[in-house]
Write a structure and sequence with these properties.
This protein is an alpha/beta fold and 406 residues long. The protein is built from eight helices and 25 strands. α1 crosses α7 and α7 packs antiparallel against α8. It is elongated and about 85 Å long.
Length: 406
């Protein structure tokens, strides 16, 4: 376990989970709303805390009620707040985040009305007590002095610098850091088409640094002290749930594995794995817990249009009826809306291949295979409840949808 000090911004995140991102001048309803602490450094420290490190944050807080909640939330996640600087004037910074459940992407709108940590406050901290210092590449008015102090007073502790956005004068601070982590936003703003080009240019200007550039679905590039370049492909995911905080998770895992003694190439590989793990869940809580392993409920090769297949469905009240219709698999809960009994309560479900219907075995209600609507019988015009499923095109495995995956 290491003692890690993070210096950066702290915000209140308001997360709105929507079915899809709204078009301009549209009105949509959010399925869920959450309030969490956010900010790159705070998120990374939370992940590092889960990885077993002792973490502390240098940031600013207002004196409003939201600030009290943020401080309490940090402490609940084992992040030390003793180095927080308070400001009477100003309000808690807020980020309004719209998350598309269709794609897992997020769109962020920031509001800030609070000063950032000043040099004098940072200078009073006994930074020698920490094993690693991680700086967010913002607050340029004070950041240069902070890095100078760190470079002067630290004997062996590494200094990492996250460069997410282009800010005037930030290139002049690169020499003060041991590890520099660039985002693709910075690289693109500087005219680079890929991470390798950026890292080669930075290495030429600042040799001897460990350099990393993350690029979303294109993976990440890294360059060692000696100038050895490596590209780490992104982990392929069948479904992205939530990308918010994936970069912060990557940074935390990178620092963690470097502290553990891994070389830069191996640390980047492990960091990519944890960032991918993050993309498969909402939020950063329980990030190290194993994902629920999906088990198929059936296989495509066993489903035909001539027979209704009834299978157990973990998590649902009823079993699921599977049947093929026009090269598509239809799935319905095995529950007749007439008297809430299984369709196969008395005997198997009869299929009429000419009318394309399924018959309940209890009171002879006929349901269209196409949409589950009752077209004849005691529950006429009522419907079977459809079940969302996913079919693996390679293996033919049929899964219940919206379950977490490995």
């Amino acid at each position: 376990m290491a003692k890690i000090l993070g210096i950066g911004n702290l915000v209140l995140d308001t997360l709105l989970f929507c079915e899809h991102y709204p078009k301009e001048d549209a009105e949509v309803r959010a399925q869920q709303r959450q309030f969490k602490f956010g900010g790159n450094t705070a998120n990374s420290l939370y992940v590092l805390s889960q990885l077993g490190h002792q973490t502390a944050i240098v940031t600013t807080l207002a004196t409003d009620d939201q600030a009290k909640h943020l401080k309490k939330a940090l402490e609940q996640q084992q992040i030390d707040t003793q180095h927080v600087q308070r400001f009477i004037k100003g309000a808690t910074p807020t980020s309004y985040i719209t998350i598309s459940q269709q794609t897992g992407s997020r769109t962020i709108t920031h509001y800030r009305d609070l000063p950032e940590c000043d040099f004098e406050h940072f200078a009073k901290i006994e930074i020698e007590d920490y094993d690693w210092l991680h700086f967010e590449g913002r607050n340029l008015e004070a950041l240069g002095g902070m890095l100078n102090i760190a470079k002067t007073f630290l004997s062996h502790q590494p200094i990492s610098l996250e460069v997410e956005k282009p800010r005037e004068g930030i290139e002049g601070l690169f020499e003060q850091a041991n590890l520099i982590i660039f985002s693709h936003h910075y690289a693109k703003a500087k005219g680079f088409a890929e991470g390798a080009q950026l890292l080669q240019a930075i290495h030429h200007q600042h040799p001897g640094k460990q350099l990393v550039c993350t690029w979303g679905e294109q993976g990440a590039w890294c360059m060692s002290h000696q100038g050895e370049l490596h590209h780490q492909p992104a982990v392929k995911l069948k479904k992205v749930v939530d990308t918010l905080g994936a970069g912060d998770t990557f940074n935390a895992a990178l620092i963690h594995h470097l502290i553990a003694g891994l070389d830069l190439k191996s640390a980047v590989e492990q960091a990519s794995q944890l960032a991918a793990r993050k993309c498969q869940q909402i939020g950063l809580d329980n990030l190290l817990s194993p994902l629920v392993t999906r088990k198929p409920i059936a296989n495509l090769k066993h489903i035909t249009s001539a027979r209704a297949t009834v299978v157990p469905a973990p998590g649902l009240r009823h079993k699921v009826v599977l049947i093929k219709h026009d090269n598509e698999i239809k799935a319905y809960e095995n529950n007749c809306p007439h008297q809430d009994v299984p369709l196969d309560e008395a005997y198997k479900i009869d299929i009429n291949p000419f009318e394309m219907t399924m018959k309940c075995s209890v009171h002879d209600a006929f349901f269209r295979i196409e949409d589950g609507v009752c077209v004849e019988g005691p529950c006429w015009r009522e419907e079977l409840k459809p079940v969302d499923i996913e079919v693996d095109s390679e293996t033919g495995a049929i899964y219940l949808a919206d379950m977490k995956k490995d």
